[in-house]
Amino acid sequence: MVTLKQLSKELGVSISTVSKALSDSFEISERTKKKVLALARKYNYRPNNVAVNLRAKSTKTIGVIIPNIFNHFYTKILSGIEQEAKRNNYKVIVSISNETVSSEKEGISFFSNGSVDGILLAPSEETEKLGNYKHISALHQKEIPFVLFDRYSEKLNSDKVIINDFDSAKKTVKYLINKGREEIVVVSLIKHLSVGELRKKGAFDASKKITLLEFEKEEELEEAFLKLIKRKRIDAVLALDELSGIITLNIARTVAFRIPEELTIISFSQGVLSEYSYPKLSTINQHAKEIGENSVQLLLTRLKNKEASYKTRIIKTALEIHQT
Amino acid sequence: MVTLKQLSKELGVSISTVSKALSDSFEISERTKKKVLALARKYNYRPNNVAVNLRAKSTKTIGVIIPNIFNHFYTKILSGIEQEAKRNNYKVIVSISNETVSSEKEGISFFSNGSVDGILLAPSEETEKLGNYKHISALHQKEIPFVLFDRYSEKLNSDKVIINDFDSAKKTVKYLINKGREEIVVVSLIKHLSVGELRKKGAFDASKKITLLEFEKEEELEEAFLKLIKRKRIDAVLALDELSGIITLNIARTVAFRIPEELTIISFSQGVLSEYSYPKLSTINQHAKEIGENSVQLLLTRLKNKEASYKTRIIKTALEIHQT
DNA sequence: ATGAAAGCGCTAACAG
DNA sequence: CTGTTAGCGCTTTCAT
Question: With 0-12 CB in 10 A as exposed, 13-18 as middle and 19+ as buried, what is A197?
Fold first, then answer.
């Protein structure tokens, strides 16, 4: 990489003259500017980012800690983050926690050395399970601004971007009841997540008369659901996560349920899974991309004003019913 | 963030003493080391990464340009990259090209200012379509090492990590023939990708008697495949990409094909889609994670020795047949 | 209109 | 064993 020093030497002017010329300073004569610009272009000069960062004491980089990159929901959030960051001339560094506390800590420490201006973070499942958020709140001491997205805790004081899980589940159950569905089953594989808890509460807030199937492992859910539908007539399923939705769908089909005529399945999701399932699953779309975009916006706002009070943005969900 | 300067001031020693003490230099007395370490811990001192980078003229960061983050295949590669990078104490910056030349160029220029030590890149679909790789080979002039993964071109001289697409397709068709399948259909939605071309050639190299359905849009493929199976008996499908596989599967089921008894479907894939399809699709697993890991390894090797000749690593595929 | 010098935070060669 | 100094590449203040 060519540097200001090299350019200045070749042009026989000082480094500062070259620097000023390149930033089109009024202090520099047109003639010199032309000369400098020409040579800079010839060598494809680009200011060394690291040096600029050191000088500016800012990196124009956002660190993202994401629990799981195989989950299409987070992938969409990441895409929203990346786009919004780029739009604001920020770079994005990614660290994947794989739902473990240890990787999450690693990621945080990875970012806590001036590599990033701020952090976007969705706590790992393990973190939520243990309820220990000290490694995250430690960012406050380090004065590294951060924004939580999707998952959060009352224990954590910070900006956050979330969806209205409680309301979404409640509204969906109400919708099912309105449609005349009477035997509603709620299935879930995300027992340990804060969002799972909220959705469950929302569903039960709409109706006490709900059967709950909540498990940690896919096979357990499969077994339980199969047993249930053999024993009892049901006509609606609300899946609190996409995987539960797909599993329920596939099992219902093996026992020849007509879907959605005999059995309505609605699933929280943002996935390819539901899109390419057969038949297409009805979903509660979580607008993942907007979650990502809003997280970036909140963080950039925070970077501009570190003293402002913490803000929460709630991204609305949309119920998408597929009749086919 | 606390700096060496601040520590040195509080301790009443010089900056370099603090620096040396923290790196456990033999030049420093045990007593001083203890004192320094204690204060450093108290303030949670971490060397400023940007300053270290400037000094070291290396960023310990890898830039990744990925065509599409919604494709599970690339997501897995990214995960492999991230893990292998972390294992070697490198950070990962991500830029998503969305299969467009313009975003790809943006990404490259984004990285070409000293932000990264090297680049990992899978060219966008548009780039492959246009056959113009100048913006990529320009990295050679800029002396930024890069490694291509998954997609590549003869026009590009570089390290690369690829799968043996030609052989995999060929072997799969042979497998089908061995199993007594006679009417084989090859379906594809990745006409414009170099890998699509290779897979197609491989399939035809195993048998000339193949029906080819190749389209750009999902609907076109759906229509054509439906028409075909109504007109003619077929007993095997090789899908060159996962989407084609799923679409074929869903259509075959609407017309009540028994799968895999009557119709074998095998698909190139690395997806959740095939895993949670019903019935489970048989797949040609591309070991995406290994592609990611190998890309990082090749790049790090290159960083150590910029003069070595270019290497190509071929990641083997595995045929995974599901009987259910 | 141009240049010299300082300083961002760090490391390391050199001096004492 | 500790300190001084230089320099990574850049921007900016302050001379000239």
Answer: middle
Q: Give chain A's end-to-end CA distance (angstroms, integer).
A: 58
Residue in the block written with tokens 């005529």? A261
Identify which of A265, A286, A281, A285 has the alpha carbon closest to the alpha carbon of residue A179: A265
> A284 to each of A25, A238, A250, how far by Cα in Å?
54, 10, 19
Confidence band for A200, pLDDT divided at 50, 70 and 90: very high
B-contacting residues in A 211-250 (Cβ below 8 Å): 243, 246-247, 249-250
| DSSP E strands, B122-172 | 146-149, 159-163
Specify whether the CB–CB gap between B106 and A86 falls below 8 A.
yes
Segment (H or E) for A285? strand A282-285
B26, B23, B25, B4: which is closest to B15 by C-alpha? B4
pLDDT value of position B169: 95
Phi first, then psi: give them for residue B160, nearest 5 degrees: -155, 155
Q: Which residues of chain B have pLDDT under 50?
A: none
Q: Residues of A numbered 269-308 whose beta carbons fall under 8 angstroms of chain B's beta carbons: which are they? A: 271-273, 276-278
- 3-state DSSP call for residue B228? helix
Q: Which nucleotide is nearest to B25 (CA to C1')?
A: D1
- What does the pLDDT read at residue B45? 94
A324: pLDDT strictly greater than 70: no
Residues of A in contact with B86 (CB under 8 A): 95, 106, 110
What is d(CA B262, CA B279) in angstroms, rounded to the nearest whole number?
13
* Min distance B3 CA to chain A CA atoms (Å): 11
Closest CA to B314 of B201, B198, B204, B207: B198
The Cα–Cα gap between B243 and B261 comes to: 22
Q: Per DSSP, what are the bridge partners of residue A265? A: A237
> Residue A273 corresponds to which amino acid?
L
Look at B275 and A79; give whichever has higher pLDDT. Answer: A79
Q: Kindly indicate the confidence band of residue A76, based on its pLDDT and cuts at 50, 70 and 90.
A: very high
Q: Would you say the C-beta of B48 is within 7 Å of strand C?
A: yes
In angstroms, the Cα distances linking B33 to A30, B41, B49 are 55, 12, 22
pLDDT range class, residue A280, cuts 50, 70, 90: confident
Q: If residue B185 lies in a helix (H) or strand (E), which one and from where to where?
A: strand B184-188
Report CA(A60)–C1'(D10) in Å, whole number: 16
Least Cα distance to A94 among A116, A73, A66, A117 occurs for A66
Cα separation, A79 vs A89, in Å, equals: 15
Query: For residue B273, what pLDDT is reported?
Result: 73
| A75: nearest CB among B59, B69, B243 | B69
Name the closest residue (CA) to the C1' of nucleotide D11: A55
| Residue A145 DSSP class | -
Whether the beta carbon of B57 falls within 7 A of nucleic chain C: the reply is no
Q: Residues A149-163: pLDDT tens digits?
A: 999 998 999 999 999
Average pLDDT over residues A190-218: 93
- Residue A122 near residue A151, CB atoms below 8 Å: yes
Residue among A79, A96, A243 minimizing CB distance to B79: A96
- How far apart are the C-alpha atoms of B299 and B305, rounded to whole Å? 10
pLDDT, tens digit (0-9, with 9 covering 90-100), for B17-39: 999 999 999 999 999 999 999 99
In sequence order, what are the residues at sequence separation of 6 or more whose Cβ sits closer than 8 angstroms to the Cβ of residue B210? B173, B184, B185, B186, B203, B204
